[in-house]
Amino acid sequence: MSGDGALAERRLITSVARRFYLDDISKVQIGQEFGLSRFKVARLLEQARSTGIVTITLDDGGLPDDPLSARLREHLQLAECLVVGTHGGDVEARRQVGGAAAALLTDTLGDGDVLGLAWGRTITAMTTELRSLPPVSIVQLTGVVGADLTESPVEVVRRASRRAGGQAHAIFAPLLLHDAATAAGLRRQPDVAQALALFSRITVAFVAVGSWDPPISQLREVMTPEDRAELERQGVQAEVAGVLIDADGTLVGREMAERCLSITAAQLAAVPRVVAVAAGAAKAAAVMAVTRSGLISALVVDRALAEALLAMPFRADPPA
């Protein structure tokens, strides 16, 4: 086709596409207007999409994908899975997943529940998106990690308690201490002891997932190189609420746990409903490790992370 002919063809495709997609005119009406058959109109519209003249974007950011949620729930053998569409970069994905988790929390939390909250950027996004909660007690699951007050577990609990109007029980102390003796001493402090005593009463917990390989973990960042090296030697893959887990879902870092002000693995396992919230396919191995551990009963993730999890076996392949 000559240059003039190709230009005329492109102008026709564009005109037909504009009438169909923007002006909402039927194919029959467009055919009458341009002197074309309905089948010719259909072929031109197909060309408009295949050549990129027309692109279609589905804005499903933050909206549930029910079929994918059901597939993931069955694959991971969990009680609940919520998969949502996301658009944009990592920050926007966390905001959309956090918004979905906030809606789930609002819809399912009831009077008499005791809510436990860990730290993490997705949990921070969740509490930022919260609009209301029933009047429940809220308990901080770990001490403080890092120096960023906007993502501090204390700030997470404070923000959520403002939506609930219930009592907030914070831990104004670091998550990781230098030695077990210092941690034991802090556990005896009245305000810390009061919060820790509530761990056995928690009915619902929302937690984030930290990844060690690849390194996407705030806890890992505040550890000494020696501590990191020892835990990596033990095969740590993920952490949730300060609990360290290897790729098979086995607990590691038991000596480290004695230096932490946080809910224990046994206490977390006893919580009736534990919801992990995560975004990004890079966290797939960490989320799978936490799921294999049996510490969580529910998951809120974005579509990219869900698809990465579906491509992995729920149980690790046995050694040859």
TrEMBL record:
Keywords from the named record: DNA-binding, Transcription, Transcription regulation
Q: Which GO terms describe its molecular function?
A: carbohydrate binding; DNA binding
Q: Has keyword Transcription?
A: yes
Q: Domain of life, per the record?
A: Bacteria
Q: What region holds the Sugar-binding domain?
A: 68-311
Which residue windows are transmembrane per the record? none
Question: Do you know which SUPFAM superfamilies this protein is assigned to?
Answer: NagB/RpiA/CoA transferase-like
Q: Write down the InterPro entries for this protein, in alphabetical order.
A: NagB/RpiA_transferase-like, SorC_transcr_regulators, Sugar-bd_dom_put, WH-like_DNA-bd_sf
Q: Which family does the record claim for this protein?
A: Belongs to the SorC transcriptional regulatory family.
Instruction: Tell me what this protein is called.
Output: Transcriptional regulator
